[in-house]
Amino acid sequence: MATTTIISRPNPYVGPRPYKQGETIYGRERETSELLDLLIAERIVLLYSPSGAGKSSLLNAAIFPKMSEQGFEVLPPMRVNLEPPPDAELDPAFNRYVYSCLLSMEEAMPEDKRFSMGDLATLRFKDYIARYQERALNLNPDYSYPSLLLMFDQGEEVIRVSMTDRDKKSEFFLQVGEVLRDRNIWALFSIREDYLASFDSYVRPIPTRLANRYRLNFLNAEAAMQAIQRPAINAGVEFPDECARELTDDLRKVLVQQPDGSTIEELGPFVEPVQLQVVCRRLWSELPDNATAVTAEHIQALGSVNRALADYYALQVASVAAMSKVPEREIREWFDRKLITVSGIRGQVLMTPNQSEGLENKAIWMLERAYLMRAEKRGGATWFELAHDRLVRPIRENNGEWFEHNLSALQRQADVWNMQGRPDGMLIIGQDFLEMQKWAEANRATMTQVEKDFYAESQKAYDADIRERRNNTIIRWLFVASLVALVVAIVGVIFALYQRRVATVREHVAAANEVVSQDPQLAALIALKAIEESKTMPEELQYKSQEALHHALIGMRVERVFSAHTDRAYQAFFTQDGKKFVSSSRDSTAILWDYETGAPLLTLSSPGEEIRVVNIFPDGKRVVTGDNSGVVTVWDAATGAVLKEISAHADSVNYLDIAPDGSRFASAGADGKVIVWDAATYAPVLTIN
Predict the structure, then answer these.
(1) I need a labelling partner for 112 at 20 to 30 A (CA). Which of 147, 312, 501, 583 fits?
(2) Contact 371/400 with Cβ under 8 angstroms?
(3) Contacts 24+ apart (CB under 8 A), 504-508
(4) Are 221 and 252 within 8 A, CB to CB?
């Protein structure tokens, strides 16, 4: 007799979609009770939350049935974004927001009793409610005119649908206010919190002006565990606390930036419901047929939360690319370069007409509806960012795999070349160019303009390299022929030393190529050593050394390279606007740079001393440096003039920091002292041993 397996059972986790009526939502018992009490007592309530907190799920799966149990007639949730019927907007009296709500409520009526779209387009909200109840009585003679509950879901759409028809929006709220003056009618408005300010400008006609409000947050750790465990338990599968806690902790990790610019993972207070559902639905689908409990092995077999989120990201990006007709590569590059910074934290993109930072807005809004990112309104503008820090690593890893699998070496190299300002040093020459030439001939029709430009410039560099190598060969042999008699006595020694150096360079190149896939940064350092040692060697070794560096840079996804120091660079600090930064070096200089152009703006010199540390004041007008002799120097960032030189420490200055308001700065030295200085008088304020 065949046994029922877990795989054959319905998946108890809903995934990225909202809960529907009739489904059970877990982890929201407290919020359900509080909101229900507030709504029954106050009659008109505004529910608001961050995007993705689960407002629609709470309304559908909890508030709707609970209010029905209390004797309310709950009409279908209303949306205001439905398209109007053809030519309806030609009528000056037509209001698309009212029409959209009425069309939503008509779902409660049998199809043969529903109003036509033309009839709905002419009705006022108050008249519709009266006629709704008349029809309900005709359908059911026992209809007792119960209290009605109107639910306005995703109320931010009244702001987002159109930015120009303020009069129509005001009329909509006026009609809703007329309906709510009937004290037998309750109302619950649901809205994203970033639209509250805009929404509040319309609520004057509403009784109470929506003074009664309830904020729904993301799931805390305890609620998240309930949402993880109870669906499985109710489906007959145990979900132990330790396994649920492991998933919960992984889901609530956030990236915290440190003072030195690095980031670390810490446990945040909340879990986003959408991410929880995505991961749990994936876990359930991969349970073995005979499993009756979730175990640590099942959690490990899931791979990681990163894998589940990465797979969800890949699926949604492919879907959006297909629906929007935007190439998947463009969407992935937009995430990789616009929504995630070089340092691995969330960036922000300002919405502009048609396209925002190179990606079509229609695709961006599809990604927002897939909960991969969120839109926030600030100061009258809309900004896009990733939905959660937890998505940074999965997206980066999935993009890296996709780029590696779908883009050729030419495409990846062309991309880095373009981002670096198209330097000649990154063009492909030698044997690599011949391989690139084969690929370009086979794929010319699909090459982007950047790839075509890169190929053309590499062709020029390759041809120049061949000519130079041929000329060098001719000159070299003529020179050797004229001096052969003179050098014959010492050629053996020179050749032996030369071969040793050549072998060393070849070893460096081989080592860089060997480790590039595991540690591109180490590969870059080894390749730089090879380049330095091959300067006086044949062009073949120089090119191979440069090729090894190019391959390492592709793996590192370096955004920019700045080169002006003649010795090791120690530190770099950006100005607050990110347009400039200052660096320190063992070459006794500090340099102020223009980030966009890569050009040095100002060089500050301290002859004979290594400038170990550097910082720049918040207003960008002064630079402060510390050298290995213990001297702290304050410079004018415009002229390079020394404003103050302080013998601060008995040994090297190891750290400098500046207060956010620029009123004070602190230095720390190898002598074990930390000194706080007044930035106006340069007098010591506090010394800590």
Answers:
(1) 147
(2) no
(3) 504/533, 505/530, 505/533, 505/534, 505/537, 505/541, 505/545, 506/541, 506/544, 508/533, 508/545, 508/548
(4) yes
* Cβ atoms of residues 28 and 54 within 8 Å: yes
Options 2.40.70, 3.40.50, 3.30.1360, 1.10.10; CATH for 308-405 is: 1.10.10
Res 89: pLDDT: 59
The model's pLDDT over 361-401, given as tens digits with 9 standing for 90+, comes to 999 999 988 778 878 665 457 888 887 666 788 898 898 88
C-alpha span between 49 and 57 (Å, rounded): 12
The pLDDT value given to residue 486: 66
**H/E run at residue 567:** none
Q: Where are the alpha helices (DSSP H) in 353-448?
A: 361-369, 392-406, 409-419, 430-443
pLDDT at 64: 95
pLDDT value, residue 7: 44
Residue 683 burial (CB count, 10 A)? 8
CATH fold label, 569-688: Methylamine Dehydrogenase; Chain H (2.130.10)
DSSP string, 5-43: -TTTSPPS--TTSPP-TTSPP-S-HHHHHHHHHHHHHHS
Total number of residues shown for the chain:
689
Q: In angstroms, rounded to a whole number, what is the distance separating the alpha carbons of residues 138 and 631? A: 92
Cα separation of 285 and 264, whole Å?
A: 32
CATH classification of 43-217 is 3.30.230, yes or no? no
| The predicted structure's pLDDT at residue 485 | 60
- Name the residue with tokens 């028809």: 165
pLDDT for res 677: 96
Measured in degrees and rounded to the nearest 5, phi and psi for residue 63 equal: -65, -45
Name the amino acid, one letter, at 244: A
Structure tokens at 527: 């390749």
Tens of pLDDT, residue by residue over 38-57, are: 999 999 999 999 888 889 89
What residue ranges do the domains of the chain occupy?
Answer: 43-217, 308-405, 424-556, 569-688
In this prediction, residue 624 carries a pLDDT of: 97
Is residue 75 within 8 A of residue 108, CB to CB? The reply is: yes
Buried b (16+ CB within 10 A) or exposed e, 359-396: bbbebbbbbbebbbbbbbbeeeebbbbbbbbbbbbbbb
The Cβ of residue 235 has, within 10 Å, a number of other Cβ atoms equal to: 15
- Structural element, H or E, at residue 177: helix 166-180
Closest CA to 77 of 19, 120, 29: 19
Residues with Cβ within 8 Å of residue 166, at least 6 apart in sequence? none
CB half-sphere exposure, 403, CA atoms < 13 A: 24
Low-confidence ranges of the chain (pLDDT < 70): 1-8, 83, 88-90, 303-305, 343, 376-380, 388-390, 419, 439, 443, 446, 482, 484-489, 491-492, 555-559
Position 52 scores a pLDDT of 81
DSSP string, 527-558: HHHHHHHTTTS-HHHHHHHHHHHHHHHHHHT-
Terminal CA-CA length for the chain: 80
CB 589 within 8 A of CB 611: yes
**Amino acid making up residue 635:** W
Instruction: Give CB contacts under 8 A, 24+ apart, made by 419-424.
Output: 419/559, 419/560, 420/558, 420/559, 420/560, 420/561, 421/560, 421/598, 422/453, 422/454, 422/457, 424/457, 424/461
Rounded alpha-carbon distances, angstroms, from residue 142 to 31, 65, 75, 109, 113: 34, 21, 18, 16, 18
